Amino acid sequence: MVTKKSTNKGKILLAGATGYLGGYVLTELIGREFQTRVIVRNSSKLQNLSESVEIVNAELTNPESLVNCCVGIDTVISTVGITRQKDGLTYMDVDYQANMNLLAEAIKSDIRKFIYVSVLNGEEMRHLKICEAKETFVDELKRSGLDYVIIRPNGFFSDMSEFFSMAQAGRIYLFGNGELKANPIHGEDLARLCVSAISGSETEIKAGGPETLSQNEIAAIAFEIAGKKQKIMFIPDWIRRLILSFVKTFTGSRTYGPIEFFMTVMATEMVAPEFGLHTLKAFYQELKQKTAKPA
Question: What residues contact residue 249 under an 8 Å CB cut-off, 6+ apart?
Fold first, then answer.
């Protein structure tokens, strides 16, 4: 059995390193000179890594491929989860069971701490398929006997790109009156919190970006950067509920799940403690540069 470490510089196992947040977490771990082991399905997605990074090729949904992956590990960080159900995998297959497979190995190797990234207000949104899977795993993690940290981020900046796409097309659609507030967070800022949690004492961290904005204010920023006249169509909430009912009736869970989550979050106040440096305006400016057509 692996002995628990007392040093804050113990070796870290990162699961989900090729995802949006996981990539930033890996960069932060390397920058802080942590010895790091990453579990990836396709190692070709990770290139030019530091010598301090050990790559393990494994499939988190296949427990046999994970045997002994946590030996010698101090802390596990898991950003594993799917936004859209694909490749025949469901939220329960990935957000729950894949993390459970990893947790079983963590317990077997007697690691010190397990850090898991869920979602803000996940406890109150268990009726959503994605939150049901995440929070069911959170329940098991809390019962595991390991030290743990649940990271609960607000929406990522990457989720806000849809606002900019609509602005570029000339019109943004909002549910209700657009006054619901949110403070989405950049992956780089959230990664700093995840890595700091290795040596922290909190068991739950709610995290949002440095600016709390209404949906109308987010739309205004998107139009400004897109260089378009502001045009917003406000959709009554009863239409949102009707759309959800229709999609749930006539599509499978693979299609319904992401729509259900997006449309619920868009009709919910999503505000977390403010943190970080990255602004949404700067993010939209970066998007504009990436989508600009060459002269």
Answer: none
Neighbours of 202 (CB within 10 A): 12
CB of 12 closer than 8 Å to CB of 25: no
Helix (H, G, I), strand (E, B) or coil at 175: strand
Helix 280-291 / helix 161-169 crossing angle, nearest 10 deg: 60
Joined tokens for residue 172? 């943004």
The answer to whether the CB of 90 falls within 8 A of the CB of 120 is no
DSSP H or E stretch at residue 40: strand 36-40
The residues facing 232 across adjacent strands are 172
The CA–CA distances, whole Å, from 248 to 236, 251, 258 equal 19, 6, 11
**How far apart are alpha carbons 147 and 145 in whole angstroms?**
7
CA of 219: how far to CAs of 145, 181, 245, 272, in Å? 45, 12, 27, 20
Q: The pTM is what?
A: 0.90
CA 90 from centre of chain: 16
Name the 3-class secondary structure at 123. Answer: helix
Beta-strand runs (E) in 134-275:
147-153, 172-175, 181-182, 204-207, 213-214, 232-235
Per the CB < 8 A criterion, the answer to whether 184 and 226 are in contact is no
Give Cβ neighbours of residue 97 (< 8 Å, ≥ 6 apart).
61
pLDDT along the chain (295 residues), means of 10: 47 94 95 94 75 89 96 97 75 95 98 97 92 97 97 92 95 95 96 96 97 97 96 94 88 78 90 96 94 68
Residues 6+ apart with CB under 8 A from 206: 120, 152, 153, 272, 273
Answer for the pair 72, 36: CB distance below 8 angstroms, yes or no.
no
